[in-house]
Write a structure and sequence with these properties.
Elements: H1 11-28, E1 35-37, H2 44-48, E2 55-57, H3 63-72, E3 77-78, H4 85-90
Parallel strand pairs: 1-2, 2-3
Length: about 100
């Protein structure tokens, strides 16, 4: 997966990400919102949580897991980028798929 040397980011990678987000906030000020694409790396959710992201893009195939994360974290979670064709979207309940067009 781009940006990470392994499928499960090591603690040093998550700490580095947290430091980089802190530096971005410090350098840009509160008026700039940060949006991050974490691919499938669920472990990063807790590392980025304190940084008040505008949103985190996280690819999750399980709609129940996505709903749980959306309830638990303090920022919006975007998802669905890795769902392809009707088969992929058919597993996503309409209430979770804001802006999707179901046929």
């Amino acid at each position: 997966m781009p940006g990470f040397p392994a499928h499960n980011p090591q603690p040093r990678v998550m700490e580095s990400l947290s430091q980089q987000l802190g530096a971005l906030h410090a350098g840009t000020g509160p008026e700039v919102e940060i949006m991050l694409d974490a691919n499938f790396h669920l472990q990063l959710v807790r590392a980025v949580e304190p940084h008040r992201l505008a949103w985190l893009e996280l690819d999750i195939y399980d709609p129940a897991a996505l709903a749980l994360l959306r309830r638990e974290v303090g920022f919006p979670i975007a998802s669905g980028e890795s769902l392809y064709a009707r088969r992929g979207l058919s597993a996503v309940p309409r209430r979770l798929c804001h802006g999707c067009r179901h046929r």
